[in-house]
Specification:
Distance between the termini: 21 Å
CATH topology: Aminopeptidase
CATH superfamily: Gcn5-related N-acetyltransferase (GNAT)
Order of helices and strands: EHHHEEHEHEHEE
Shape: globular
Radius of gyration: 16 Å
Structural class: alpha+beta
Strand content: 25-35%
Length: 212
């Protein structure tokens, strides 16, 4: 779950629009472009294919409790938050929680939190996450959020000098690291080589009366 959120400033940002079910299908191309562009950059370094992205994103249109919060400006998608019940995710992801006390039926998985670089440092990441949390709380059956981040060494040769890891944003928004709860995914990097990657899970307790 990547984001480019940095220290936030109180600048005007567009609100996200909630999409569910068939409405998600109409935004698949925009979401695929957003994912392909942002995931290509550090720390994910994911060289994806549009066909694969569209196939993956269709699950958000097909799962009844999935949702997408999409922010656009000038007709272009500039940010998005996506999620679905953890119990609906693939078996490889679920296996990471085999030894965890987490109740999978009460856990909502945040698939992505994406921002165009030009919209970082403007509070859009927090706004999209808050909108997603509000929607999840409204469902009335989820008690926590979980998400996963890719693990990269601090001395990775492609790490930008001004890179700020997502872990800081997660900590500031109430997520805690789940020690030992990890999984592995392989994907092709920009150099064309497919590599294995460790994904670390995080969790946030949802409070119905939480103040935003």
């Amino acid at each position: 779950m990547p984001t480019l959120e940095k220290d936030e400033k109180s600048l005007s940002t567009p609100a996200g629009k909630l999409l569910t079910g068939p409405a998600v299908a109409g935004a698949l191309d925009a979401l695929a472009t957003l994912r392909l562009d942002i995931f290509l950059e550090y720390p994910y370094l994911y060289r994806g294919r549009r066909e694969d992205e569209l196939n993956y994103l269709r699950s958000y249109a097909e799962q009844p409790d999935a949702c997408v919060i999409l922010a656009a400006e000038g007709g272009e998608a500039i940010g998005a938050a996506t999620g679905m019940p953890l119990s609906h995710e693939n078996s490889q992801l679920l296996e990471a929680f085999a030894d965890s006390a987490l109740n999978l039926g009460e856990t909502y998985y945040v698939g992505e939190l994406l921002l165009r670089p030009a919209y970082c440092s403007r509070g859009l990441g927090r706004r999209l996450l808050a909108q997603l949390e509000s929607e999840v709380l409204a469902r009335g059956r989820y008690r926590q959020l979980t998400c996963a981040t890719v693990e990269r060494p601090a001395d990775h040769p492609l790490r930008p000098p001004d890179f700020i890891p997502i872990t800081r944003f997660l900590a500031r928004t109430g997520f805690v690291r789940l020690p030992g709860v990890t999984t592995h995914f392989a994907w092709r990097e920009p150099d064309g080589i497919q590599r294995d990657h460790v994904m670390q899970f995080w969790m946030k307790e949802l409070q119905p009366d939480q103040s935003r």
